[in-house]
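Team,

Forwarding the record for the chain on the shared tracking sheet. I've put the sequence and predicted structure together so nobody has to dig through attachments.
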Amino acid sequence: MGRREGGKVGTYEAVSELPAGCLPAIVVVKLTCFVDHYVVVLEVGEGCLIIGDPLGGRQRWTAAEFEERWRRALIYLKSNGK
């Protein structure tokens, strides 16, 4: 299929330093105290992210908001050029 999968665990910096071609990426975030939720990181900018949320649509989160909600799990696919 010409793709490699991978994952990351860590901080906003780990997400902002993903190699080219790794976005969009799926992340697990805290929806409520006991409920996790999947959203998609569409873009990473200077101190902010553009998130695609199936429940809330396209949103802009600050790095601080992302750090607070993110469960430290990220899934991405990267084209290997094939």
